[in-house]
Amino acid sequence: MVDVGDVFKALADPTRRHILDELAERDDQTLFEICTRLGTKHQFTSSRQAVSQHLELLEAAGLVRTRREGRYKFHTLDTTPLAQIAERWVRTRPQENP
Amino acid sequence: MVDVGDVFKALADPTRRHILDELAERDDQTLFEICTRLGTKHQFTSSRQAVSQHLELLEAAGLVRTRREGRYKFHTLDTTPLAQIAERWVRTRPQENP
DNA sequence: TTGATAGGCAAGCAGTTACTTGCCTATAGT
DNA sequence: ACTATAGGCAAGTAACTGCTTGCCTATCAA
Question: What residues of chain B lie within 8 A of the CB of A83, using their CB?
């Protein structure tokens, strides 16, 4: 079970949301792929290190999973934390309180 | 339409989540009520100004609505921003991308 | 009118965050 | 072996955050 605060913090940054958008469009991307596609497709220029640090944070929040293959590191979107947040913060809140 | 970033930022802080919890349990509370109940029921002591500033931020994010009545200001939970972020970030993400 | 209660305003401060800069390691191609 | 590529590490910095402190305004009860 991930920390809800970490997930919300991760989602609070626009660059990180763009990264998640990008990974939602195309999974299994390397750091450099994400960087270039953020610039070309999302008009959002960020340095390699900036994106790298964002990916670290996203991984810590459980939103991104990584897989090493040679000198490449592939990044994959993991939506289970989002589902957990929805469970706690969206579905239950309007009608009932446990 | 509220800013998604503001909502996530608002939800990123544990104190603010406690405040929302408190408002979910009992709606239409004044600042002082929220302060005392945060302490007694949630074991979460925060000063008046701290809570006040959190409420300001929550209101800016659209998660709390206020109503003045004499010298009292009542705070009400508004869940529509949660529904909106669910629409954008939870329901659509796992299967499809628009 | 006086005092108490509910809340607001704004400056200051310590801790955090997003980003840069510079250098280093590791894998792969030639 | 040498060079280019993919990525990591860590210190530094400017901006932001959460909170405190001190004072001020407004409403109500006596």
Answer: 90, 94
* Beta carbons of A8 and B12 less than 8 angstroms apart: yes
Is the residue at A96 inside a domain? no
Q: A64, A82, A91: which to substitute to probe chain B, counting the most B Cβ within 10 Å?
A: A82
**pLDDT confidence band for B78 (50 / 70 / 90):** very high
Residue A92 has pLDDT above 60, yes or no: no
Interchain CB distance below 8 Å, B12 and A14: no
Would B73 be classed as within a structural domain?
A: yes
**How many domains does one find in chain A?**
1
The rounded percent of chain B whose pLDDT value lies above 90 is 76
Kindly report the CATH number assigned to the domain that includes residue B23: 1.10.10.10
Q: Cβ neighbours of residue A9 under 8 Å, at least 6 residues apart?
A: A57, A61, B12
Q: Residue A75 belongs to what domain range? A: 4-91
